[in-house]
Amino acid sequence: MEKVQLYIISGFLGSGKTTLLLNLLAQWQDKKVAILMNEFGGFNVDSKIIGDNVPMNELLNGCICCDLKSDVEVQLHDIRHRHHPDVIIIEATGVAHPVEIYDACTAPSLTEWMAIKAVITLVDGPRFLERDQYSITTKRLMEEQVQYAHIVLLNKCDLLTEEAVKQLKDDISELNNQSQIIRTQYARIDRSILAVDGEMLKSKNYSHPGIQSLVYTFTGPVSSRRFVDWLRELPSSILRVKGFIKFQENPQQVVLFQYAYGIPQYEPEIMNMPLKLVIIGESLNKSKILNQLDQLQFS
Ligand SMILES: Nc1nc2c(ncn2[C@@H]2O[C@H](COP(=O)(O)OP(=O)(O)OP(=O)(O)O)[C@@H](O)[C@H]2O)c(=O)[nH]1
Question: What is the CATH number of domain 211-298?
Answer without folding.
Answer: 3.30.1220.10
